[in-house]
Each structure stands twice: as structure tokens, then as C-alpha cells.
Input
Amino acid sequence: MREDSLKVQTVSSRRPKRRPVVAVLTAYLDRSDGGYEYVLRRSFSRACRRHDFDLVVLCGEAIDDPRPEKLAQNRLYQLIDHHHIDGIIVLSPCLASYCGLSGLHRFLARFQGIKMCSLGAQLDGIPSVVSDNRLGMQELVEHVIVRHSRRHLAFLGTYTDNVEVDERREVFLSVCERHAIEIRPERLMIAGLEAVSAQAATTRLLQYDDEVDAIIAANDGSGIGALRAIDQRGLRVPEQIIVTGYDDIPTARMLARPLSTVRQPIAALAEAAVDAIAYQLAGSPVAYLTKLPTEVILRASCGCESESRNEYSALARARPAVDDFSLLFAKSKKELKEQFSSWVDSVEPTVALDEAVLSLCHDCATKTPQSTVEAELAVEEPTYPASHVPGIYKRLVERISIENMYVQILETASRFARSIDLSELELNLASCLPAIHSRDVYMALFTEDALPRLRRALRIENGRVSDSTGELLPQDGEILTELSSVDQPRTQVVLAIAMRDQMLGIIGFHELDKYFDYLLLRDHVTSALHVVRLHDEVLLQTMTSERNAQERQAAAERTRSLSALAGGVAHDLNNSLGSLVALSDVVRDEIDGHMSQGTALSPDLLDDLSVMKSGALRAAETVKDLMTLGRIGRTRQEPFDIARLTRRLVEELRDVGHSNLGKLVQFNFNAKVGDLVVVGSEAHVERAIGNLLRNAIEAMTVGGTVDVSVEGLDLPEPSTGYESIPAGSYAVVAVEDHGTGIAQDKLSRVFEPFFSTKRLGETSGSGLGLAIVHSVAKEHRGYVDVESLPGEGSRFALYIPRTSAVPGPRHASVPAVSGAARILVVDDDLTQLRTAKRVLTRLGYDVMTTASGTHAVDIVTTEANVVKAQPAPNGTLGSGFDLVIMDLALNEEDDGLTVFRKIREVVPTQKGILASGHAFLDHEEQIRDANLIWLPKPYTVESLGDAIVRALR
Output
């Protein structure tokens, strides 16, 4: 019935200069020509033509669908505005699947100034057109229970909220309850509203429940899927299981067992919705609720034939005459037609179009060209149920046309899918689309600017490409009326082009008079556009990678030059720093002694000495960084535990503190493994990790927490970050601060020597720290990664390949202690000689010094002659010195190592220490062969005392 309904009027005489545009918002398009949406769309089109309206069908997704790719589709609705759209008809049940009717009402509130109508569900304050679903479903379920005595019913619904389906389920349950029929939870099947999903759900139910004797489907598509599943199980319909549907779509009438269903007045619903918009545009009163009656249609799927008049039995009798397809295919075209016609004549004129018969017709007809079939078999469009047999021929021609359409789409898509850039894709589309879609087509894409705008990418009008391609639209909503015409009303279907969670644009079609799968064509266009975007991304990444490779190569060249420079200056710098490092401790001890005896000295002297030593140590660290940069390819690599090493470095930083930085920094250490062994130079890896820790401290402006973690990581596939990390097993040391962060445009340069994002004047080191990290990683076949956001902090990670090897024994350091040994110190730097003598004398040793290696040999020889009458316990000659400390780089012909060999010719058992500001690795093998202790410069009192104790052992 219609509540407060008004007589239908047209408003064409009162329309404005621009033809009104009505938009239909829907969340799906049918993938066949007989579905509910397709029939409804055609009805909308007829009603709009009667009112002289343009119709725009906007197909997005359900409102508030949480899936990102669906959200992108729904941005299509944002193009609607009152400048271009005059009325909106909302297919409420499908749009409200996720948001509910209240959410849909809030969504529609954004379209102020546009007349609206809801179809399928009642919305408060909006004119609504609905079917009397409750009464129709109630009569159908009552019929199955009472007339056919079925007690084990199941309901086939949908997995999303749908107002109409929920209402039908509720009626189903209430009728079953009234008849004392208990519905098990598993019999409330969940599926989509299409046949494939419903077939799968029904198959699952029948595998475990053999008592089901009736399936009530929420729509005809689900009912068709249930019939297929029952056939596959070898069960009989309706003898064993009754199946019913809802909507009465054309396909439901064309089955071997036509589907009992509830007929919705689809055409009347569409007419009423368009009328509601027309009344509002005309300023006339309109009913807020128009409810139209439904009708129960009983057919063979429940054993009743109120409409078909024994169609199924007549068809069943006729089928055996044409079951031998091979005989039919062997006949000539003329014989084939004659046999086919004679078979049709044997069936009652009211026969429904059986799906199996349709397949047979199709198989027979495809042996002849489509044009011949259309010419010989085409008839006037029949009404269903078929009033005469020639309707079968018409349906056959439609089916052939649809299959040809699919073939054309697929063949055409293979042509434009090979496009590699946007301009080529647009040209290919312009040449391909007219062949498969004879009416106008347009496409608009969003620009990639900060404020995206729609740009016409394609417009095909009357088979020709428009010159307006490439223009920006003044208003994005203008694209929705792109195909409007002053000649006659038009219907256009508009779809979003979306990729992942991004809406790229839209594509619109002037609707054809016959069925066309717009979704399929849109999806192929989207895929082609995706390929173009991927091609662009690959080009961009390639260019970026090449640029980064060039930048890193340039940085590597600078590093090599720097390492050469470092080798030349390191020795002199270390000699100069040696006095500051070592003598500051000696002077401090002497000052402490004087103060203990009551001597009054300024307390600032002690602070000055501490500052001097701290500055010297920082300078020494810079020299070590320079030397490390020059060691690529020359490190001695042995197994060691990187987890233990990292823990020690963190504990040392905790102990010494960072008061000189004026901030309090705490360390949060997390070792996700016990032992984590790598192969490499422990000293250099220690240097790299230490630099990461110091870099994190310096990044913290006012203190805070530095997170340090060590873990074993197995990468099953390559990982892409700052650099690509191949699959493999790694030890990963990560240091994360919460400091100032690094701008994205600076990240590519953070590992360059002397590059720093810190301000001048900050306590920030030399700018070599991260360059050391990168160099050490490459030396150990490892990788680095960095993530940073300005204002939030940075995370640096060092990846080094793991090993199953076992670390060797570790040397325990010995604190500096006083001794009574006699020591000869050889160094060509007088300041260093004085420093060594002061330190060693302070420690209690008897010290002699010389600046010449030749003189050192003479001194040892002389001393040896003095004691040669006193042989050593092992029978060899000794010398007058317990230990010789020799500088490696002497300013004369022989270096310190050669001088030591000459001394060993005189005193083979002479113990010695080789000191140098150069790298140990340059002479590693010779030093080990000579059984000498290595002492790097500049040395502290502790490191010198430790070396002496080890050497004297």
C-alpha cells in the first residue's frame, strides 16, 4: 500500500534551464543482466527520461567499510555537490551494511541543499520508498511450513548488516517460533548475496546436517547458489529439500526448477523514488513513507506451480529428444535449426526458460556467426513468464551478445594493459574503448599536487576523442555531469578508480541499451593504471638509487682521501697528545701529595688538569676515528661476543656519566639473546658501537633515555631500509634516542665523514662517528639502517652476520702498579721521552731514555757486556734492562721493529713494548712473531702500567 501518496506528475515544464540531475548512490552493480540492481537501474532510467532528468549512477562501497581499498572507493561520494546534483536516491540497505541506518543518516547530512529519497529502508526526515518485506516473507515461510510440512528449516543470509535481509531473517525466526520450530545456530547460514558464496555456505551445511528439508534464502541469487549445492550433493528439489528466494529476478524464472520467491515491484519502486525527487524539485508535498506491496510467487522449487502451469513437467518430457549434443553438432546449420525448432514446438507455449536448455541453445547457436543468429532468431522482447516460445530465441541472442562483450573486454584490455606511461595509456584507451563501448566514455584523474585536482584524462564523444583532454576541472563535481546533453536525458554510470587506499580518479560511461559489465572494464583500466604507476615508481627508485650510489661513491672517495691524510698526521698528533694525557695524572698525584702535607694550592688547578685531560682524550678519539677510516680491508677478524661487548660499553657509559654535557642520560639495555658471536675486529666494532652510543647522547638536548638492544635476527627475505639488507642471519645492535631527529633530506648524508646536523658550538665531536659506523659495517660484510623523524628521535641499527664459532679467551686488564724494574725508553720525540720518564719514575721504575734507535742498540750492548759474566737462568745472556719500550716510527733509517731485532741479536731474551700512534694492523704479524707487547699512543698511566705488567710476565 502507499501511505499519503500523491498522483504522479512530471515537472518537465517547471525545470530550470539546466536539466535536473538525479544521482543514485549504490554499493554494487550486478554482474549479470537479470539481477535486482540491473532491473532497478533500468527502471530508474525510464522514470528519469519521463521526467526529463539526467541520471547518474554512482557506485562506490558501503559507508564506513573498514577496508582501506573500500574507503578509497567511497571518496567518489565526495564529488557530489548541489551545483551539479539536484537529487539523490540512496539504495539504503546496501550502503548501510557497516554504518547502520543512523550512520547513513549522518552521512547524508553533508549533502545540504540536495533533494533526497531513500529506497529500501525508512530514514527519518527523508522521503522513503520501501517494499512490504515482512508480509511477503511471512507468507512464504508459512507456506513452506504449513503447506509442505517442513520442520527442519535453514536461512541463508549475508555476513554484513543489511536492513532488508535483517528484516527477512527476523520474520523467518518469528514464524518458526510461532510454529514451535527450533532453529539451530548453524542453520542460520552466513554468505554473500551472490550465488557463488551461497553455494559454498550451503555445501558446508549439507556436509554435516542431513536433516535440512527447506532453505529460505534472503534473495534469489542466494537461492540459485543453494540449488547448485543441492544438485552437487545428488539431492532432489523439492522432494528432499525445498528452496525459496526473494526479489523475483528474471534468472529465478529460467531454471530447470524455477525458484519460488517473493516478487518486489522493482519498476514501481524506482518510479516512486524518482517521483519523490520530482515532487521536491517542483515544490510539491511528498509522502515521507511510500510502502508498496510484495507478491508471493510459487514455482517448482517448492513443488507448487501457481504461475508456470506445469511448465517443468512439459520441459522434462521434451528434454530427452535433444540430450545427444554430439549429434546436434554434427548436423548442418539448416538441420540444426530444424531440429531445434521442432523440439521447441513440442513444448507447451508457456514453458519457462530452463538454464540447461539455454546452454543447449547457446552451444547450438555458436556454430553460426552472431549476425546470422540475430537475423534469423531475433524477435520482439517478451515479457516473463514467457508468453510464447520465441522468447527463448531472444534470450539466446542476449546471452551470446553478453559473452561476446566479455571476450571483447578481455581482448581489448590486453592491448591497453601493456602501456608503460600515462600518455600512452590514454592514447590506447582512446583507440580501444569505442570498439567495445559504442557510447560516450570519460575518465578524470587526480593530479599529484599538494591539493589534488581532477584533470580530464580521456573523453570519447560520438566515437571521437575530445580536445578537452588534459584540462583541469574548475570544480571536481563538474565531472559528474560530463555526459549531460541538451538533446535528450542521459544515464551514466560513474565508478571510482582506486589503487590500495588511494582514489586515483573516476571513469564514467553513457549507459548502453543492453547489459554491459562496467565493473570489469573499470577493473582492467585500474590494473593498467596500476602498471603505469608501478613503472613510474620503479623509474623514480632507480633514479634515486643511482643518485644515492653516486653520492655514496663520492663519500667513499672522500673517505679514502681522508684515511691517507690520517695516516700521515696520526703519529705526530698522538705524540703531542701523549704528554697531556699521561702527565696530567702525574701532576695531579703530585698536587695531591703537596696538599696532603699542608701546602696551599688553588683548587682550580685540579679542575684545570681534568679539563686538559678530557680535551686531550677527545682529541685522541678523533685521531682514532681517522685511523679507523683508513683500515678498510686490513682488520684482523676473530670470533667475539657482540652482546657482551655492547653490554660492557653501556655499563662504562653509565659509570663515567656525562656531566660535561650538562644533561642526565639514562640507558635502557635489552639483550634478547645470551651469547651472540660474530667474526671481526672487536676493537673496531667496539669503536662503531661506542660511536652510536655517543651520537645518541649528543642528540638528546636535555637528557632522557637511550634504548639499546641486541638481538639475533633471521631475515627470510631481503629487507629494504637505508640500504638493502640481503636475507641471512644477523646480529643486530640498535641504538634509539628520543632527541632532535634528522630531516628526511639529510638522512642520505649522515654517514659521510665530517657531515653533521648538530649546530656549531655543541659538544658534538668531529663528525666522524657515523662514518666510522658505516665503514666498520662494510668491513664486516654488514649493513646499517637508520630511521628518524624530526622532533621525535632516531634509531640506528648495525647488522653484522652471525657465526657459530666460539670466541677465544679474553685478556684481563691489570691496573697500573708500582714496580722496581729497570726500563729503557726509546722515542725520537723529546716530549714523549720526558712524559714516559715522569710517569715511569712516578710508578717507581728505574728509567733511562734515548732519542735514537742506534744509540739504544749501543746502550743495550754496553749493559750486556757488563753482565755477561752473569748468565740468565736459562743459560742465555741477559741485559741491564728488564724492559725496553720502543717507539715504532723513529726519525732515522731503521724503524723501532728493526731496532728491536738488532737488540735481540745481542740479547735474545730481551722483553719489549712497541709503542706507536700508527695502527697495530700495519705491523701485526711482525709484532706477534717478535713476541712484543703493542701499546697505542697516546697512552694513559693505566694503559702504560698495564702493558708493562704484561710484558714483564
About this structure: The longest helix spans residues 518-596.
